[in-house]
Amino acid sequence: MPRFLTRAAFVLTTFMIPAVASAHTGIGPTSGFVHGFAHPISGIDHTLAMVLVGLLAYQLGGRAIFLVPAAFVGIMMVGGVLGVAGVDLPMVEIGIALSVVVLGAAVALRIKTPTTVAMAVVGLFALFHGHAHGSEMPANATAFTYASGFVAATALLHGLGLVAGFITARLSDSRGELIARTAGGLAALAGLGLAIGLVA
């Protein structure tokens, strides 16, 4: 257990790097990567959804541990391309908020669903998240470096969710389940707040 807590702390520390680096972002590739990396962790909506994907994947177990986060990242890149290209996608912000609600509820209720269904659901939501990332790409960034940044940050957030799932699973059955259910429920409530504008 201490080993996994150490890894979790390392991941959390990694998340702080863009905030520190933002004062000296440089130009070109450095700036693009940093902006891309910072985007998913700069808003609670993206952060919650991506951590929940990892937590849900761990709860589902088996192949879902790898396939569900991979589906999110893959479809998110498609959404990013659409955003960069200026292709309109309706109700992006609502889609992002609903992703937090649905994923939070799935974690809270410990919903067991086939891996393919989970991949389809997270993929749909990933399209909205990716579009939001792509449409906000800075003018001085290249698409490749910017996308590399938000893909890396997303993978780290999924990893944090997987670590959280592992840690709660190693607690006593009642404690671990209560923590996971509570976290999912609070996230779903935050998603509702995002959807109606109570949470920024």
Description of the structure:
- The chain is mainly α.
- The chain has one domain (2-196).
- 80% of the residues lie in helices and 0% in strands.
- The chain has nine helices and no strands.
- It has helices at 2-15, 17-21, 29-41, 44-60, 64-85, 92-108, 115-135, 143-170, 173-196.
- The longest helix is centred in the C-terminal third of the chain and has 28 residues, at 143-170.
- 43% of the residues are buried.
Explain the layout of strands and helices.
Layout: H1 2-15, H2 17-21, H3 29-41, H4 44-60, H5 64-85, H6 92-108, H7 115-135, H8 143-170, H9 173-196
Helix pairs in contact: 1-8, 3-8, 4-5, 4-6, 4-7, 4-8, 4-9, 5-7, 5-8, 6-7, 6-9, 8-9
Instruction: Note poorly predicted spans.
Output: 4-28
What's the overall geometry?
globular
User: What is the total tally of β strands?
Assistant: 0
Q: Strand-residue fraction?
A: under 5%
**How many domain modules?**
1
Largest sheet, in brief, is:
none
Helix-strand topology string: HHHHHHHHH
Average per-residue pLDDT, rounded, comes to 85
Separate helix tally: 9
Class inferred from helices and paired strands: mainly alpha
State the helical fraction: over 70%
Based on CA atoms alone, the radius of gyration comes out at 16 Å
Distance between the termini: 35 Å
Tell me briefly what this model is.
By secondary structure, the chain is mainly α.
Features:
200 residues; mainly alpha; 80% helix; 0% strand
